[in-house]
Design brief:
single chain; alpha+beta; Elongation Factor Tu (Ef-tu), domain 3; seven-stranded antiparallel beta sheet; six-stranded antiparallel beta sheet; globular
Length: 284
């Protein structure tokens, strides 16, 4: 992929699952579930996380504040699981209602130099007149380049980085957590990690360096080693993306104590690889 040109605006246009939350208790209800400050959300889009009780990232969400409802856009996650959990914890006394799931078109400007969280998205339903204009007249980034851009931003994917093991701080999503708000699901773990700076691993972009190796994307061995002799395991590959016949890159979780000690690491499948920080990640 050639880099997105600074003087040529490109657009991330993609459909996502969405459902609405209505009722006078909507903000309070959602504030107790997600990591962002929903109470102070007014007329803007908030990126936030839904965690397990022990702080594992389960879903990456956007909350779109509208006049009489909150729209929950599921950027990454299992929509049915999210809705079921939300529905099951609504108390009879709560004035909260969930809509059925529908698709929404999400549009956002992208570039190679800033975090994806900088630019606010806008949303359209298929029947919106403006959607046809944007769809037909803007320079939408193609599917392959979008996947690569997401890797460079370290945007997690379901069953890869969101795998039932990683917390949002390890995935570089610390800025999506409000450490000053009241209780929310997974708060105790997030506060503990922050207070003792106990991250064991961080997400990184890896790129294969061995041009002559016969790559197999289906290899089961995802372990990353500190040298060809496999003396120490320093992390593991979570996702891969093939750019062309010679270059493969993806995301990996790397143990913090090895991040700054080596420029290159090794894998059985991809040979020598380099490790780099992403544009979009932030860490404690």
């Amino acid at each position: 992929m050639s880099k997105i040109k600074e003087n040529k605006e490109q657009i991330w246009l993609e459909k996502f699952d969405c459902f609405s939350i209505t009722g006078k208790d909507s903000k309070r209800f959602l504030n107790g579930i997600t990591t962002g400050n929903i109470i102070d959300l007014n007329n803007k889009v908030l990126k936030t996380c839904w965690l397990s009780p022990n702080g594992i990232l389960k879903s990456l969400l956007e909350i779109n504040f509208l006049e009489n409802k909150l729209e929950v856009i599921v950027l990454v996650g299992n929509t049915n699981e999210i809705r079921k959990y939300f529905h099951d914890i609504i108390f009879p006394s709560d004035d909260v209602s969930l809509s059925d799931t529908f698709l929404i078109n999400r549009l956002q400007q992208v570039d190679d130099f800033n975090s994806w969280r900088i630019n606010q998205p806008i949303f359209f339903k298929n029947e919106d007149k403006k959607y046809d204009f944007y769809k037909n007249n803007l320079n939408s980034i193609n599917t392959n380049d979008l996947q690569l851009w997401k890797i460079n931003q370290a945007i997690p994917t379901l069953e890869s980085e969101i795998n039932g093991k990683n917390n949002p701080l390890e995935l570089g999503l610390a800025d999506l957590i409000d450490f000053n708000k009241g209780c929310y699901l997974g708060q105790e773990t997030m506060s503990k990690i922050r207070n003792v700076s106990s991250l064991k691993q961080e997400i990184r972009i890896w790129t294969a360096k061995d041009k002559d190796k016969d790559f197999s994307l289906e290899s089961e061995n995802k372990i990353i080693y500190n040298n060809p002799n496999k003396e120490k395991s320093v992390g593991y590959i979570t996702s891969t993306h093939k750019l062309d016949s010679q270059i493969i890159k993806g995301l990996a979780m790397i143990k913090r104590k090895y991040i700054d000690k080596e420029n290159c690491f090794f894998t059985d499948n991809f040979g020598q690889i380099s490790i780099d920080k992403s544009v979009g990640s932030t860490f404690l």
